[in-house]
Amino acid sequence: MKLEKEYQTYLGKKEELLAKHEGKFVLIKDTQVIEIFSSYEDALKEGLKRFGNVAFLVKQIQREEDVNFFYSNVAA
């Protein structure tokens, strides 16, 4: 799965991140937490500036994860 390393890094550091930065956004590349940001947009801009148009993770640091559902081929 794409971004698996990054997501596992987030999970491994989640409690530490929650204690210091709950509600903010973390930028992760490979297994490195790069930086914490106040907004998604700032984290995304920095990721693009540092790494270019490649895979990196921007994730809001939150205790409870939102669940999103997507259905394809849904008949009206």
Describe the structure in your own words.
This protein is of the alpha+beta class. It has one domain (4-60). The chain is built from two helices and three strands; from the N terminus they run H-E-E-H-E. It has a three-stranded antiparallel sheet, sandwiched between helices. A hairpin with a 2-residue loop joins strand 1 and strand 2 (32-37). The protein is globular, with a radius of gyration of 14 Å. The N and C termini lie far apart (32 Å).
Descriptors for this entry?
alpha+beta; three-stranded antiparallel β-sheet
Structural class: alpha+beta
Beta-strand level of the residues, as a percent range? 15-25%
Question: Number of folding domains?
Answer: 1
Instruction: Report the principal-axis shape.
Output: globular
The number of helices is: 2
**How are the strands ordered across the major sheet?**
2-1-3
Draw up the topology in text:
Elements (H helix, E strand, L loop, with lengths): L3 H18 L3 E5 L2 E6 L2 H12 L5 E4 L16
Antiparallel strand pairs: 1-2, 1-3
Brief digest:
Helices cover 39% and strands 20% of the residues. It is α+β, with helices and mostly antiparallel strands.
